[in-house]
Amino acid sequence: MEKTPSSTPSVESIAEIFSALGQVSRLQIVRLLLAAYPKGLPAGEIQKELGISAPTLSHHLEKLRQVGVLQTEKDRQWIWYSVRSEALKQLMEFLYAECCTRNHVVVLEGSADDSDQGCCA
Q1: Is the pTM of this model over 0.70?
Q2: d(CA 104, CA 101)
């Protein structure tokens, strides 16, 4: 069953997503689909681009879909996969929440002159 990201994800659900992304092929799939955002790509094009066998690709796509990173849309005989931007936004918000509340852990380029503003400038 496909998960849909909630407005306030639990630490456990964030960990599930990071775990799913902790595999080279899955990261490559997400990056490829980000490049094809918002429409995404059908599985055949992902397979052709990344050189992953169909059964292996199917496994990776299903895992990413289960944790809510990908969404699917059927168009005739093709299933299109695209990145669910809300899931990625939640991951980034989770990582940056602490640096923007108490600690300015990351200073983004362009904000180096104004270090008081940190990553949230």
Answers
A1: yes
A2: 8
